[in-house]
Design brief:
binds pyridoxal-5'-phosphate, alpha/beta, seven-stranded mixed beta sheet, Aspartate Aminotransferase, domain 1, three-stranded antiparallel beta sheet, about 400 residues, globular
């Protein structure tokens, strides 16, 4: 028995979509990227979207769109993946790490307000594990202190709060289509905004800093009245961050499935929660809510015997993860150590368990059985995870 932690839900439909791209033999940026951007904007209820090669690029470009002066500060959670803070550094901005709420593990509004200074220009909340950050309070603070809000939606594609899609509350929503995330394009990302102009600002940046990409120039190839179809201008220092048509063709199929995949994950989470009810030493990672509109990337538990649980599940052939070592404990951000005490204490208790749409009921039951078996094991003084481990 081997149960993976994450697994993309892909099949014939995605293969057929890729086959069509092969038949057209236009693999790079092209009509499918545009179609995927439009479909995504429509699905989200946003104004415009731009498809990129990752969420890392989306976060980077979202911050770049505001052209903040060098050295300004960006508030980011400590408990997140590297990309959230790298986006600030790539823009020559300084990350300020905010602690997490002990229950939702998303950014703590109280600590956010404490850490805002006149140098702060933006905040990048992460909807941790798919549980919505407290957007009402965050937007209120952002308004009072004139901060731009970039939602890191890598964990919550398709999720909503109060009937409004996550990623449409702030100035930008940035999504990941990495293979582990809620839907995939292999590698990929999207930045969406209610402000079309912000999206247009990113367009040259994602394509070497030039004014027209090849898809836009291609229309002129056949027009005999146009001699300079090849013309473009280099307007700034750009990147090669675009999505390609191969990826977009997969994304168009996955987007149609996204709501179904998210509902399926909710069913599996419900089954996990039922199974956990009689296990006293394990607590659910998040205050999971069972209503429609919730999109969760992570299912996990909290335990003060983390490393022992991870080793135990390995014996049962069950993959686990730890999301995440707080960034303030990473060597790159060593100067910020100690600035997020809640995250720096809680992460030692966190274990992510297998969660993906194609996981079967019997596999969840098997994991629960393994957890019950763990519960029956005697506790020893060596069980506690060491903070650095
Ligand atoms: C996965 C992830 C990213 C980066 O997404 P990529 O598409 O892999 O670049 C950013 N933020 C968070 C919170 C993530 O989990």
């Amino acid at each position: 028995m081997h149960i993976r932690l994450f697994k993309p839900s892909i099949g014939e439909e995605e293969l057929n979509a890729v086959r069509e791209v092969f038949d057209d033999a236009w693999l790079g940026i092209g009509p499918r990227v545009k179609a995927f951007e439009e479909a995504w904007t429509e699905y989200l209820g946003s104004s415009a979207s731009i498809a990129l090669n990752s969420c890392t690029a989306a976060l980077h470009m979202a911050l770049a769109a505001f052209r903040f002066p060098e050295g300004k500060k960006v508030l980011v959670p400590s408990l997140t993946f590297a990309s959230t803070a790298l986006a600030a550094l790539h823009n020559r901005l300084e990350p300020v790490f905010v602690d997490c709420d002990p229950e939702t593990l998303s950014i703590s509004v109280a600590d956010l307000e404490r850490k805002i200074t006149p140098d702060c220009v933006a905040v990048v909340p992460v909807h941790f594990g798919g549980y919505p950050a407290d957007l009402v309070a965050i937007l209120d603070l952002a308004k009072r202190y004139q901060l731009k809000v970039i939602e890191d939606c890598a964990h919550c594609a398709g999720g909503a709060l109060e009937g409004r899609k996550l990623g449409t509350w702030g100035d930008f929503g940035c999504f990941s289509f990495d293979e582990k995330k809620l839907m995939t394009t292999g590698e990929g990302g999207m930045a969406s905004s209610h402000d079309r102009q912000l999206i247009e600002t990113i367009r040259p940046m994602r394509w070497y800093g030039t004014s027209r990409d090849t898809a836009r120039r291609a229309g002129g190839y056949t027009d005999v009245n146009v001699a300079r179809h090849w013309h473009y201008e280099i307007t700034e220092i750009g990147y090669k961050f675009n999505m390609n048509d191969l990826a977009a063709s997969i994304g168009l199929v996955q987007l149609k499935k996204l709501d179904r995949l998210n509902r399926r994950r909710l069913v599996l989470i419900g089954r996990y929660l039922d199974g956990l009810r009689t296990i006293r030493s394990l607590r659910p990672l998040l205050p999971y809510q069972q209503s429609d509109g919730n999109a969760y990337f992570l299912f996990g538990v909290r335990t003060d015997r983390r490393d022992k649980l991870i080793r135990h599940l390995k014996e049962w052939g069950i993959a686990t993860g730890v999301h995440y070592v707080p960034l303030t404990l990473q060597p790159l951000f060593a100067a910020h150590a100690g600035t997020a005490p809640v995250a720096e204490a809680l992460w030692t208790q966190m274990v992510s368990l297998p969660l993906f749409a194609d996981l079967s009921e019997s596999e969840v039951d098997y994991v629960i059985e393994a957890l019950h078996d763990f519960e029956r094991r005697p506790v020893t003084v060596f069980d506690r995870a060491v903070p650095t481990g």
